Amino acid sequence: MSEKTNVKLPFFGVPKILPYTKKYRKRIISMVVMGIIASLIDSIFPLFNRYAIDHFIGEQTLDTIGIFVILFLLVLAVQVILNYISLYWAGKTEMDVDRDLRDASFNHLQELSFAYFNQNNVGYIHARVMSDTGKIGELVAWRLMDIVWNGSYLLFVFAVMLGINAHLTMYIAVLVPIAVVAVSYFQKHLVTLNRRIREINSKITGNFNEGITGAKSIKTLVVEETIGNDFKKDTIDMHRTSVHATRYSAFFSATWTMMSSIALALILWQGGRLNLEGVLQIGTLSVFMSYALGMMEPITMIIETIAALIAIQVNIERFTRLMETESDVADRPEVIEKYGDTFNPKKENWEPLEGDVEFRDVSFMYPDGNEMVLEHFDLTVPKGTNVAIVGETGAGKSTLVNLVCRFFEPTEGQVLIDGRDARDRSQLWLHSNIGYVLQTPHLFSGTVRDNLRYGKPDASDEEILAALKLVSADFVLAKMDKGLDSEVGEGGDLLSTGEKQLLSFARAILADPRILVLDEATASIDTLTEKAIQDAIATVIKGRTSFVIAHRLSTIVDADVILVVKDGKIIERGTHRELMRRKGYYYDLYTRQYEEMVVNAVTA
Amino acid sequence: MPEQKFKTKASLLLYFLKGAKRWFALAVFFAAMVSVTDLINPKIIGYTIDTILNGLPSSLPAFVNVRLEELGGAAFFRDHLVYVAIAVLIVALLSAFCRFMFRLCNSIAAETLVQRMRNNLFDHILRLPFKWHSENRTGDIIQRCTSDVEQIKMFLAEQLVMLIRSIMLILLALVFMSSISGPLTALSFSFIPIIIGYSFYFHRKIGAQFRIVDEEEGKLSSIAQENLTGVRVVRAFGREKYERERFEKQNHYYTDLWIRLLQLMAAFWSTGDIFSYGQYLAVILFGSYLCVTNQLTAGNYIAFVSYNTMLTWPVRGLGRVIANMSKAGISVDRLRYIMNSEEEKDVPNAVTPDMHADINFDHVSFAYENGSAEILNDISLTVKAGSTVGILGGTGSGKSTLMYLLDKLYDVPEGCGTITVGGVDIRTIKTSWLRQNIGMVLQEPYLFSRTLSENIRIARQSSDMKDVRNAAHIASLDDAIDHFSEGYDTYVGERGVTLSGGQKQRTAIAQMLIRKPPVMIFDDSLSAVDAETDAKIRAALKENVGDATVILIAHRITTLMNADQIIVMDQGRIVERGDHEKLLAQNGIYRRIYDLQMQQSNIEEEVDHE
């Protein structure tokens, strides 16, 4: 994927996320300070052993053993407490920042316009909210602490060693840059290989998904062999890449062992000489050996942290890009002043909506498109008018609906609601007065009641039942064991498409909107139920301004005005009779469906 | 219940381990070598300090001492300390080599295992009967094939190997340490059960907590998912504020759970230090005492302390490994469920008859599960070779099921009637042969993550671009394809462009046409196509199906009315049959549906009247 190309942000992008850490600054600072002290203590522990060797063993006395034990336990107690607090705080900070970032991104998404949702798929946006935020939280807490712990540990160890014996320390110091170069070399290769492994892995998961959800197609097409063989190619690739990556990491861990051993050899050799010369005590020699053996890990950790920082830049970049995306459908400040924003509406200032809609000299181009789909379009829809939009699948029938709902705004010209530009009042005001039924109905997990109340949170059970009855959906409810309290499942999955359609229809009715938008279902409902829906539609659009993306003739025939869409553009408009008389595209579209029938009926 | 292929967890693991076992054995061998080499260095240190630097007698085994004396003993090394360094480096090289080999063998073993698991699972799943697929949830199966496979890999390649490594290290250290000092070893090892026990107890405890947090994360994730997929609904109803509150509530709840879990973990990690450092202190104190009372030399003391330090992390990790091992057991059982499900099987000596023949349903009845409501009830129907049959019926009338039975997606139970092709019972026909000869276009077809042209020719790899274009043309798909910037090379499916329902159906029609099967079934496969395209496709099909037997399932009467025979199904029974005219004359269900669908013709008349 192209987004994986290397992103380079100044200071790894950290400045971009500083605002989100502001609330926790005090905690982060104390956590860093405690981490430093904990590292200091860690580096002190070998000194107890040194004292034991030089004093107890070297001088053959146990005189100070009481103080020794007390001191040891004291330091240990401090260590335990500091570790507990810094671990807990780091974890808490991570989770707090995660939560804030998730809230912020989710809230931001609620205000972004449809252009954003059209250009980015749900999986992609979902990952911004759920996974990028986690990575950033990890950076703020654990990556920071990793650097603090390991960096200060290394510094202290070197300070202690220098304090004990500068000469011997120099030998070890020489090894550090060599280790850094070696570790970075492997790290770089590993990062690339691991990315590759993740890619193959998601491909394999995709394959499983395909093999399972596509089972019916695979069987009816008899392509088990083809699909199975392709799968094997991916698993072979995975095997090869993984083992290849291990070669690096194994070589890396071997090198790491070697480096520690070289340090050890140097100390034994040079330290032993110094001891023979009487300059260095045995306890000190032993301390040096434990430091030498314990030094490689912090070095590795620091380099791994830097590698992680580089990787996290992508997450930071994607997250900030989301946060910096501005909605191209936004209410003007003075509109917000009067009507309130999405989250804090000032309903007391809202005028009632009558339902007059007018397109005045509207030209429109989709933000990601390169062609005007509407040019100088005029249409007056007095309140209570039924507008039908017809055309082939994929012809662009939703465009007008998108403009009426202000999901998009005209590139030029105006959409007027009750005689005033739609932009003069808030989006929420408009949306609160619109009912919308999608062709692919969408329900939310929760009960039937929760779902039906979606457009009218305070609806009573009686109102809900009445709405269900109106659209002949009462039989759906009768089938469910807990009535209105029955769960519909994630996305309404426990119901059939037809049932979902009926419920979403009742949901729209319940809100009693002045403007109703319907994207008619094609053929997911059996004929008799569908007839019931058709009747219900006729009932509810009465007295409301309605825009129906129509597939059914009964809807179209009765419409006050029909707009015929082809290749994204409106090519004809008028009533059914007018259009039939014109004998244009609409007439063709129409008669073709019946031609055959009529011919056969006559010739039979 | 048929006999299970894998009766025990071990039998499945052993089956998966085929080919990986020797690599695991090698990995364990090298792991042992790593431990041995790691344990040598403290000995060298001890010798250097005691014998070379302090002039005490060597405590190394006699056979080593003999060699060292040959070289000149302590006096020689005192002048040539560099040899000690070289000895350390030689051991280090050996250790590094063993470490490398261990990691490599272990990785090859693990990857071989995973590859075998995945390939076996995938092949098996592809060959499981469709009934199995419809009874099991997709998400659950995918999870088994991904997380559970991963879990088992972790168990064998990391946990089990680490367990073996740790135990070997502990045992070897026990040997080395007790050769230095029995009492000190006893003291040090008395801590080990406590440390392991504490870690085990803790990991058991948070394991349960982790599952709860995972579940809550799942809920949070689906709230976001629903909000995003339902963005139109949210906006159209102006419910952004409600959505925000819903998300925030779950987000905060989930975060609080995590923080509580982290608190537990922080407590565990920090208190764990008490035991480890307690052990360290005990060893220092008792060791010093032993030195002071001349029961231990300084060099040996230092060696002992290094051994002790070496044990700290393996021991602390051991509790975690043991606590997590039970998870793998669950995973194995979850995979065993898949692997024990029975694949589709042909009867012995299955036949491959000519499929251009009469298809006969003879008193076929069917229920999806024993005892549940019958989906099909006593269906008898003959489809003449080369004729066209239309099936009309409401949702749940059983019309699709009838076709699934013909294609052996479900088996007709013994005693519930038979389906024959040219007089041959389909139970005795080779399944792949049967399906290859029956082209079925599903109502909701599935497109594979490939290009359009690859999708169209997937079931007939030998077809060339001309065939693909031709099939696409008949299915009225070519116009749509021309609109894609990459044309036939457009990537579709999960990782590509999303096609509309109608485009998918048309692709599936092309997919079938290219095979030119003698039997073609259209299972409501024009439902998502608008009336105009529907008519266009039907016209094109009429010219291209040749002498194939065609079965058309539809809701739309215009789609069916030209069929040689039309049957109307209701609640699993055939309630009306005949051709269009006959059915109209019957004044039954067909007529009613026809009238409802054709109401629009009134308008036509109105127009005519004007």
Major pleated sheet of chain B? 6 strands, mixed
Structural class per helix/strand content of chain B? alpha/beta
Major sheet of chain A, described briefly? Answer: 6 strands, mixed
| Unreliable stretches covering 5 or more consecutive residues of chain B | 601-610
Any overview of this molecule?
By secondary structure, chain A is an alpha/beta fold. Chain A has helices at 14-21, 25-57, 65-111, 114-119, 122-164, 166-213, 215-221, 224-276, 282-324, 333-339, 398-404, 427-431, 448-452, 461-470, 474-479, 497-510, 527-541, 553-557, 576-582, 585-603, and strands spanning 357-364, 374-381, 386-391, 412-417, 420-421, 434-437, 515-519, 545-549, 561-566, 569-574. In chain A, a hairpin with a 2-residue loop joins strand 4 and strand 5. In chain A, helix 2 runs antiparallel to helix 9. The two termini of chain A are 59 Å apart. Mean pLDDT of chain A is 84; it is low at 1-5 and 595-604. With 610 residues, chain B is α/β, with parallel strands linked by helices. Chain B has three domains: 9-340, ABC transporter type 1, transmembrane domain (ABC transporter transmembrane region fold, Up-down Bundle), CATH 1.20.1560; 348-441 and 519-537 and 544-600, Rossmann fold (3-Layer(aba) Sandwich), CATH 3.40.50.300; 442-516, P-loop containing nucleotide triphosphate hydrolases (Rossmann fold). Helices cover 65% and strands 9% of the residues of chain B. Chain B has 22 helices and ten strands. In chain B, strands 6-7-8-3-9-10 form a six-stranded mixed beta sheet, with helices on both faces. In chain B, strands 2-1-4-5 form a four-stranded antiparallel beta sheet, covered by helices on one side. In chain B, helix 18 links the parallel strand 7 and strand 8. Chain B is elongated. The chains are: A alpha/beta (604), B alpha/beta (610). Chains A and B meet through helix 2, helix 3, helix 5, helix 6 and helix 7 of A and helix 2, helix 5, helix 7, helix 8 and helix 9 of B.
